[in-house]
Amino acid sequence: MTDPKIRVLFTPSQLRSFGRCPDCGHHPPTQDHHPDCPNPDAQEDT
User: Domain range spanning residue 35?
Assistant: First the structure.
């Protein structure tokens, strides 16, 4: 098994409730997305 590039401590639904990207865990309005985020367009509306 390969080591994932992005590790998150919360489930995607928890991340969404926090206003964070469910794929990378970053907060797009303040942090943008992780460079390796598979879906950088997620959560742009928050």
Answer: 11-39
pLDDT band at residue 6 using 50, 70 and 90 as cut-offs: confident
Whether 20 maps to a domain, the answer reads yes
Which is nearest to 21 in space by CA: 6, 4, 10, 33? 33
Does the residue 25 lie in any domain?
A: yes
Rounded CA separation 30/4 (Å): 24
Give pTM, 2 decimals.
0.72
CA–CA dist 32, 23 (Å, integer): 12
